[in-house]
Design a protein that fits this description.
Layout (H helix, E strand, L loop, with lengths): L5 H11 L3 H10 L2 H12 L3 E8 L2 E6 L4 E9 L3 E3 L4 H17 L4 E6 L8 E5 L8 H9 L4 E2 L5 E4 L4 E2 H9 L5
Parallel strand pairs: 3-5
Antiparallel strand pairs: 1-2, 2-3, 4-8, 5-6, 6-9, 7-8
């Protein structure tokens, strides 16, 4: 049996790869706008590779127009303080360093457990000193950053993130050419 968070890694992987069963389940819990966004993954999916444990990256999403590493977190609490675990902070910093080297945007996906109805996923980016170019730059300007407090600790607040359905809508705009 896998780790407790594996179920959410798989859920996100199946949503982004356009798995019809997973999309249909998510659409049932969402409003029409959110559901329509999720349905776009049926025709414009990503290839998603599970990379658990590697440099703090759980998934890598690939498509002709966007590619990004994703770290998946799930919680029953709306706010995740990385300072509560040195491992979380070290993981985030390693991911950020690796992404800076290759000019990629490090994405965090947070799944709020126990939420009834609506989109349970939120998307964030780790703050970077570098201004990325091209499609990575577009994502960097659009996706909300994980907050950093005065002590330099990361704080991810679910309600501050971008709905996964909105993120899907945004990355699907390039498909309308």
């Amino acid at each position: 049996m896998g780790a407790p968070g594996d179920i959410y890694e798989r859920e996100l992987k199946f949503l982004l790869t356009g798995d019809k069963k997973s999309i249909d389940q998510m659409v049932k819990r969402c409003d029409n706008k959110e559901g329509n966004a999720y349905s776009k993954m049926l025709s414009d999916p990503f290839v998603v590779i599970r990379a658990a444990g590697s440099l703090g990256v759980d998934l890598v999403a690939l498509r002709w127009d966007f590619s990004f590493p994703i770290e998946v977190k799930s919680s029953t609490e709306e706010i995740m303080h990385f300072s509560r675990s040195q491992r979380l902070t070290d993981q985030a910093n390693r991911m950020k360093d690796e992404c800076c080297r290759s000019h990629l945007l490090p994405i965090y996906a947070m799944r709020l457990k126990g939420i009834r109805g609506g989109d349970p996923w939120r998307i964030f980016a780790l703050p970077m000193d570098e201004n990325l170019r091209g499609n990575m730059g577009l994502l960097q300007r659009k996706v909300p950053q994980i907050r950093v407090n005065d002590n330099g600790n990361y704080i991810m607040k679910w309600s501050d993130g971008m709905k996964l359905s909105e993120f899907i809508n945004y990355v699907s705009l390039s498909m309308s050419d």
